[in-house]
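Lecture notes, unit on protein representations.

Consider one protein chain, 422 amino acids long.
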Amino acid sequence: MAIKHPRLYIHIGGLVVVLAAAGFLFTTSSELFAVKYDQPIKKEATDIKGDTKTPVQTPVADTKINQGVVVTHVQPPEAVKSIYMSQCVAGTPSFRDKLITVADTTEINAIVIDIKDYSGRVGYVTDNPTLKDAVSDTCRAPDIVQLIDRLHQKNIYVIGRITVFQDPYMSKIHPERAVRKFSDGGVWKDGKGLSFIDVGSRDHWNYIVELSKESYKMGFDELNYDYIRFPSDGNMEDADYTLSVDKGKTKPQAVEEFFTYLQQQVKPTGVMMSADLFGMTTTSTDDLGIGQVLERALPHFDYVAPMVYPSHYPPQFNGWADPNKFPYDLIKYVMTSAVERANALDRAAYAQSIGTTTPALVAKYTPTTYKKLRPWLQDFDYGGNYDIPEVKAQIKATYDVGLNSWMLWAPSNIYTTGALEK
């Protein structure tokens, strides 16, 4: 099987970033990896203030930025089939046009675009006073409203991805919100030198709510929340969660409190909401040490997207020496588990609502929550060569467990179009 592109792999923020030799030059400021704090640590405030595609007109976000575009929204397709576009690519017309062509010529009907990436910087231009200082000066789309309008004209559903608690930029600006170090009280960093906001930071919750509302006004049809968790690697023994765990909460409780608040504050806008979870959440019943539990996420979002990349499962998982060699079997196994758990959650809620657990009565109920499941599938060559057979196998496995929606993740933004229906 021929290699599609010469690629270089680096790890950033828990994700594998692929740089295509002939594709796209990725640049970032070294400042992100050498954060300094020249102000005293402030005390955080604790007050919380509170397949039809008919366009729906919404309030104009900013006439200067919109340049006469009337912002509209479309409803999600019955089956969402999406690819990912980074905010660097969204700001590079020649590259993003290639991804739009993919949607024009294949079954792809949705595109995920970064709103806020691993750096914590915002990927579009805005005059919103709460957000404008966080706008990236290297990777951004100054014409995001026009880009989304163009996609809507092509009946493409637009999803905006927001990395939530991994946020080196905001950890620098507001270190009082960050995960701290037991050793010296400074801001903690993971094994890649990236810092996280403490899940219990109410000020950050409000910041994410403001970013969400502004993004919906810009035209995003759905908001996809990633890194909604505690850190997963680095010197974990030195990580001090002063705003969450230290206040007597378990990690799953702290994460679900954020889910609840986010739903209460953002859902009334009418936007669709989705959550990215570690792939292992579909088969593990504990929180994996990061606060994520599948059953705690499902009630709060329209879609839940486990990142079930075969390369991210350890050797011997389910007896497979190398899970990369079993893309169909792995996706079918882990997503079958997700469907079964969603159905069990549904039946338990139904039994409670009718006041009985009588098997004959509960068995008559038809679960629907499983339809929220929409996995991220692997389209990058980490751990093995992922080409047409491997990508097709994952998509088929998704269908074979009774699901109809999926998203392809390729950090390079280069996709295996031969695996897609025309």
